Amino acid sequence: MRDEAPTDEGTLDPWVAAWIEEDPNRAVPFDHFEPEMLALARGPQGGPPTKEIATITDEVVGIDGREIPIRIYEHDAAPTGVVVYFHGGGFVIGSIGLMDNVAREIAHWSGAVVVSVEYRLAPENPYPAGLDDCVAVTRWAQANASRFGVDPAAVAVAGESAGGNLSAAVALRLRDTGDSALAAQALLYPGTSGRAITDSMREFDGLILSLGVMAKFNQAYTGGRDLDNDPYATPLSAESLAELPPAFVLLGGSDLLRDEGRAYAHRLDDAGVDLVEKCYPGQPHGFLNFDFPAAAGAFEDVGTWLRTKLTAV
User: Fold this and answer.
1) Residue 250 belongs to what domain range?
2) Order of strands, edge to edge, in the sheet holding 113-117?
3) Which of 26, 120, 231, 242 could form a disulfide with 125 if both were Cys (CB 3.0 to 4.6 A apart)?
4) Catalytically active residues, by annotation
5) DSSP string spanning 20-40?
6) Residue 195 falls within a domain, yes or no?
C-alpha cells in the first residue's frame, strides 16, 4: 500500500519550527569527526526512558570470532516475536545507549523482544563491517528464538536512517544467501541511494542533516570506494527486490531522505512485496529519535504493524 503524498507534506510542522526557533543550534547537522566529538556522539547514555520495559539486559555475543555487544528488551508477557534493531547515525555515530528510546518504543508497541545491536562504526570499521555484524546478530536471533519462546520465523529487522539502510541490506543479504526468511522489515526514514542527489535533499539541506555531512558519512562508511552499485551498501541499486519480507517504509515529509525512501518503497511495491508506505507531513529527519509529538503516532503505527506481521507467522 503506497501512501498518497499530500502536496504540502514538506511544509515544516509548526511545532518543529518553533522548537528550532527557540534554539537554532538544534537544527545544525553534526559535522565534527574529531575523536573527542565522535566519542560524545557514540556515548552510552541517551535521554530519559520513554517506555518502561520489564527486563533490559546487556550482553556480548561471540559470532564468527568477534564479540558484538547487544541490548535485549524483554516483557513479562509472552513476546509476539523478536525484532533486531539497528540504530541510526550515518554509520559513524550513535549507540545502543543513545538510541535507547527508539528500541523501547519498538518493544512497547510491537510486544516483541527487541535485540539492539552495537555494530561496528566507520571510519574505523568501514563497510561491510557494520553490516556483517547486523547480519550475524540477525542469524543469532533466529538460531536462539527458542530462548525467547518464539518461532524462528517470527524474527524481524528494524532501524532508522543508517539503521534503515542496514535493515534493508540485511533483508537483501539473507534473501540472496538462502537464509531463513524474515517476518518483516521496518525501514524508518532509510538511506537507500548512496551518493545520488534527490529533490528532497536539495529542499531540506541543512535541516537536522545536510548534504555536506551526508557526503562525510558516505566517505567514512565506504572507505572512499564507489559502492553506489553495491546493493548491500546502496539497496536502491539492487537488481531485484522480489521475494523480500513485508516492509513498512516510514518517511518524514521534511526529511532529506524522503525521496530515496519513497523510491525504495515504490520499487518494493512494484516487485510485489507486501508494503506499507507512510509519510508523516512536516517531520524532519530524526523526528523519531528526538521524540517529537508526531513520533508517538508513528511508533504506534510501526509497532502495531510489526505485531501483526510477527503474530501472523
Assistant:
1) 14-311
2) 55-63, 66-74, 113-117, 82-86, 155-160, 184-188, 247-252, 275-280
3) 120
4) 161, 255, 285
5) HHH-GGGGSPP---SHHHHHH
6) yes
